[in-house]
Design goal:
By secondary structure, the protein is an alpha/beta fold. The chain has helices at 18-21, 24-47, 64-67, 82-94, 115-121, and strands at 52-57, 74-80, 104-109, 130-137, 142-148. The protein has one domain: Vaccinia Virus protein VP39 (Rossmann fold), CATH 3.40.50. It has a 5-stranded mixed beta sheet, with helices on both faces. The protein is globular, with a radius of gyration of 15 Å. 20% of the residues are buried.
């Protein structure tokens, strides 16, 4: 059986004992949602001419900016909690994760209050096409939401 996707960076977030204790059913739902969102993000980004804007609402530990093969000129905005992002960023750098050279990556702290203003200050333009995605995992079920404007 072939995996739906391979995330070479996810293990850097897990303590060794946790890897054996993951709920298989919950992980299957999460993997299906992740694969769907990954494929949709890349499909839409590849159809947009010129500069691409991707806004990811994350928990701060999203590996998509590092593991997906983003088209040239993609601007990726990660909206997430500052402290979690800083810890995750350090761990990802420690395992060699890198944003593609032809792309730009910006973190927007969710605590900043005016997220729209913060996005604009980093170069986001509401006059250009953008892709917005959010994936949330709860204890009971996986909820996936995909927005595109």
């Amino acid at each position: 059986m072939h995996p739906l996707f391979i995330d070479p960076y996810a293990a850097c977030f897990l303590p060794p004992y946790t890897k054996k204790e993951l709920d298989i059913d919950e992980q299957q739902h999460y993997c299906l949602a992740t694969k769907f969102i990954d494929d949709k993000l890349l499909e839409i980004a590849k159809r947009i001419d010129g500069l691409k804007q991707v806004v990811l609402f994350t928990d701060g530990m999203d590996t998509r900016p590092y593991r997906l093969n983003w088209p040239t000129s993609t601007m990726i905005f990660d909206v997430s909690p500052e402290k979690v992002f800083e810890i995750a960023y350090d761990k990802l750098q420690g395992v060699g994760a890198r944003i593609p050279k032809s792309c730009l990556f910006f973190h927007i702290p969710v605590e900043s209050g005016d997220i729209e203003q913060h996005l604009r200050s980093k170069g986001f333009s509401g006059n250009r096409p953008s892709i917005w995605a959010m994936q949330v995992m709860s204890v009971i079920r996986q909820i996936s939401l995909f927005l595109c404007n």
